[in-house]
Amino acid sequence: xxIKEDTFKAVIKPNSKINEIVGFDKxxxxxxxxxxxxxxxxxxxxxxxxxxxKVLGKRVKIKSGFKSKEKIIEVCR
Length: 77
Description:
The protein is an alpha+beta fold. The chain is built from one helix and five strands. It has one domain (7-75): Conserved Hypothetical Protein Mth637, Chain: A, CATH 3.30.1200.10.
């Protein structure tokens, strides 16, 4: 699945077996992303940023939702 937006919403499922973009939730207008790390001590957020940076080939940052499963992600161009 390819992400083309500069800013997008993501729903994170931490504690998964692998890191992957699962799909797109049309109701929430958000990408569904599985992350291996636990949502403790900011580990899932750090792993999410590393994973998306690798997949997209660009630096990304979390704009909002640091303590939520729903996050707003910004791609730095």
